[in-house]
Write a structure and sequence with these properties.
single chain, 105 residues, alpha+beta, Alpha-Beta Plaits, four-stranded antiparallel beta sheet, 6 strands, 25% helix, elongated
Amino acid sequence: MEIRLKDIAEVIRSKNAGPYELTFDIIFKEWETFKVACEKKIINEKIIADLYGIPIKNIINIIEFKPAKAIKVTIIRPISSGQLGETDVYGAQQHAPLVDLVVEL
């Protein structure tokens, strides 16, 4: 079954993880959906690399954080926070591509 990430996640957000990294948090609404998402690896390196136009080597980690029903992704920021030309100092608007991501459950 194909479904948009925003329909199964309670929270999808991004934030700085220091000036050179971004972290994305996907917190699921239901435990069963979280479990299936983890089993099927619906959030994986290829999907993140394709979605953000970055090489896989720039993905630092993808963690399934069971206590929070969450999947956390950390990547190297394409432009460091506050650098000339950077438009989102806090990294708070970088989650947008994840919102409409269609995943297979």
